[in-house]
Design a protein that fits this description.
106 residues; Immunoglobulin-like; five-stranded antiparallel beta sheet; elongated; YtkA-like domain-containing protein; YtkA-like_dom
């Protein structure tokens, strides 16, 4: 089965920042996420520290914020142990933007 691709866009005024999150797996447990962040023109995001905060609000679970490793401009990777199946919310923060991406794990 191909990795589940999830994308969303944050906006601040006239700016829209697309974020594409691709998990290595949609199973609970250890996981890694590939993140692609571009500006509204499709250019890779430059110079941003990217922080990921996985949470499962329905169960009251939240992991500590994790700084993603920059692989190249606009391309980041981060690992996390999403220990329970169900609906997670992956909050991606960069610059002053915060994007919440839903992720269902089995």
């Amino acid at each position: 089965m191909a990795p589940q691709r999830r994308g969303t866009a944050a906006s601040r005024g006239k700016r829209a920042t697309p974020v594409l999150l691709t998990p290595a797996s949609t199973k609970s447990g250890g996981n890694s996420f590939d993140l692609r962040i571009t500006d509204r023109f499709g250019n890779p995001a430059q110079g941003s520290e990217v922080v990921v905060e996985p949470a499962m609000p329905q169960m009251g679970h939240a992991l500590a914020p994790i700084t993603a490793a920059a692989l190249e401009p606009g391309h980041y990777q981060v690992g996390a142990d999403l220990f329970m199946a169900g609906q997670w919310e992956i909050t991606v923060s960069f610059d002053t933007e915060r994007v919440v991406i839903p992720l269902l794990l089995t």
